[in-house]
Amino acid sequence: MNTPYSASILILAGDGIGAEIMPHAVTVMQTAAKDMVELDLVHADCGGCSIDAHGVPITREVIRQAEVSKAVLLGAVGGPKWDGLPINQKPEKGLLQLRSHLDCFANLRPAITFSPLATASSLKQHLIASLDILIVRELTGGIYFGTPRGIEQSDNQRKGFNTLVYDESEISRIAHVAYTLAQKRNKKLCSVDKANVLEVSQLWREIVSGINVKYQDVELTHMYVDNAAMQLVRDPRQFDVLVTGNMFGDILSDLAAMLTGSLGMLPSASLNVANRGLYEPVHGSAPDIAGQNIANPLATILSISMMFRYSLDLPKVADDIDAAVDRVLNSGYRTADIMPDDSTETITVVGTDQMADLVNQELKRSKCENSTSR
Ligand code: NAD
Predict the structure, then answer these.
(1) pLDDT for 232-248, tens place per residue?
(2) Which of 7, 199, 278, 347 has the fewest beta carbons closer than 10 A?
(3) Which of 12, 282, 285 to mutate to test the pocket of ligand 1 (most atoms within 8 A of CB)?
């Protein structure tokens, strides 16, 4: 069969478990893409491995390659070997440079409960069963970037200060992303702010509400951030898509992610205005377990699923990957980080390579079934 189009993907495996997981995750990606899209894969260095090979955490050539790629898939960067370097030369600087060059202003963090892992949550099982929410965080503005900022001497003491600032265009572009995503899901959008105290939040609320006329099929609600934190723990399934600013999103997305269990299961996407994106697991390079074939590859594999959904516009392929992961977990396979403390079912502990291979085999099987049933 001829594939409909091709897409260039930049693969930055990085350091530690990033480098360990990536070859297996790429195999899954190629199986998923088969007959759907031709992938033009470019492999390059980022992070500590780039410092070792090129003297900088990311080279100009790699940034240029990222800018012309449809998507960038990143493993993880960093490790003790480079901890002593000045802040501007550390491996993480490569990732920050990449985010800023790609202008990835929309960070997407799903919180999904895979039913076999419901017991891994710290919440009661009935509260998180079938949970599927998406937090859309503004990533390039707000208090983390606002000026003036600093620490200065004032009278007899020092004072620290930062600026929480958003202009209309920044609010508007993240709101459009969130509305569009809500339209493709359950058509519910909750905008999170602190409009009872902050003028910037009053503007945020006004702009997000104004845009609702363009997305009349989406039900918009507003919630103060303190209440949103409580509601995410009290009854997370009331939400579909949440949209919020940089700092509120930073906190709420970690809170929501942990509702569902292990760091080894958490994917993320950061998109720019052209829907080109940087896809990466939430976890770091995990030097404590690197090289032991025990790291969970599912966060990277689920990041690939997000890549097919959001940058390659192939939601069916993304659904196939998610379903394959679900089936593997349902069959009782677990990496060490998601092993239950006690279980009445038969559970098999597997390594990084075997977990990725199981997902790959499931994908192959479902593709085969689909093609014979056509
Ligand atoms: P980490 O996410 O690497 O590890 C935290 C804990 O979770 C560790 O105990 C680790 O073994 C475990 N863990 C993480 N991913 C796992 C997986 N897939 N399977 C099983 N267990 C997993 O965070 P850290 O230890 O704070 O940071 C280690 C290094 O990674 C540091 O250099 C840090 O700067 C870097 N880091 C990079 C990124 C990134 O590349 N986006 C993100 C966070 C941290």
Answers:
(1) 999 999 999 999 999 99
(2) 199
(3) 285
